[in-house]
Amino acid sequence: MEVTLQKWGNSQGIRLSKSLLREIGITTEKATFEIEVKNKELVLKRKKESKLAQRFEGFDYKAYWKKWNKEHPGQSKEVDWGKPVGKEIYW
């Protein structure tokens, strides 16, 4: 498939057809891509959406709190946001 680089506002862009996007499994209007230059060619890769659990993969919460306690000895982990200023309801 051949596409043409065209002026798009103050930038330039390439439009991808629905059939091409459908071929790679993109059916929504929003998708994120990574783009890089290799050997003077553009390489466009679909970026997979990450789930929240994946973002915390490898996070050691025990080590995090151990470090926090060392840096804040005797302090409470609760945050005091002050007195209500509007119609907040506290139970």
Question: Could you describe the 3D structure shown?
Answer:
The chain is an alpha+beta fold and 91 residues long. Helix content is 23%, strand content 20%. It is built from three helices and four strands. It has helices spanning 18-23, 52-55, 61-71, and strands at residues 6-8, 11-13, 33-38, 41-46. The chain is elongated, with a radius of gyration of 24 Å.
Concise description?
With about 90 residues, this protein is an alpha+beta fold. About 25% of the residues lie in helices and about 20% in strands.
Uncertain runs are none
Determine the N-to-C terminus distance.
62 Å
Largest sheet: 2 strands, antiparallel
Order of strands in the sheet with most strands: 1-2
| Range of helix content | 10-25%
Shape: elongated
How many whole angstroms does the radius of gyration measure? 24 Å
H/E element string?
A: EEHEEHH
